[in-house]
Amino acid sequence: MDLGIHVFRLSEESFRHARSRNLVLSGVWLFLMLVILAFIGIPRDADPRVCLLVFVVVLVVSVIGNFSQRWRAKEVHQTVGLAIGADVLRYVSALAPPVEMTRTEVVRLQEGRSGLLIEATAPRRAVFIPVSLERYALARDLLSAWRTPEPLTRRGPGGAAVLAGWAIGILGWLGGKFLENPWLAAVSTLAFLGVGVWFAWIVSREPLVPPKTKSLLLIFAAGALLVLLWRFIQPVLEPAR
């Protein structure tokens, strides 16, 4: 019996895009690992052969991690599915719990160059449908019957700005933790704090991030900041003992 339910999968173009993104992230991870080793892992007077060995090990681990991410991206690509009926939508993925919303719950439908963003309320949740979805035009027509699409307004910065923010945040944490000069350490801590507040603001406004994930990210950032602040708090507390 035809129930009027249309099922959609991601296209191969989507998988190629995810693979390219993972390659960039692997390169950024390799760079940050080398910076971390320069900060804390390799003494300045170390044998050049030791430095070369460490570099080769980090490079091999990065290559293995990249292949692992490519396999993971393929697995995720195969598990993503979207079902649209006359009055209900269901989105499933290996990366997050299934999201379901009815036609009456949808409060906003936005469309941009990269796809559709569907937002529902009670409870608040969202689904993003990329243009790389197979039969994207059909999915768009079905959802446009629910609500007229609005222009997609960007809530946060682009991918390049996010990667730069991550790099500055990690370097700021390393500087605040390991730099001997207290003034430079303080400046690094402030840089980490600034990036942390910026990311918290971005994540809080992003409907695609589940509430539990937002809480975990906030706890992680607060713990990392506390580790840095303890360096400055500890000398103040010692005389009181």
Plain-language structure description:
This protein has 241 residues and is an alpha+beta fold. The chain folds into three domains: 6-78; 86-151, Pleckstrin-homology domain (PH domain)/Phosphotyrosine-binding domain (PTB) (PH-domain like); 159-232. Helices cover 59% and strands 17% of the residues. It contains six helices and eight strands. It has helices at residues 12-41, 48-79, 136-144, 159-178, 182-204, 211-237; strands at 6-9, 81-84, 88-93, 96-102, 106-112, 115-120, 125-130, 150-151. The chain has a four-stranded antiparallel beta sheet with strand order 1-2-3-4. Strands 7-6-5-8 form a four-stranded mixed beta sheet, covered by helices on one side. Strand 2 and strand 3 (88-93) form a beta hairpin. Helix 1 packs antiparallel against helix 2 and helix 4 (159-178) runs antiparallel to helix 5. The protein is globular, with a radius of gyration of 23 Å. It starts with 5 loop residues before the first strand and ends with a helix. The relative contact order is 0.10.
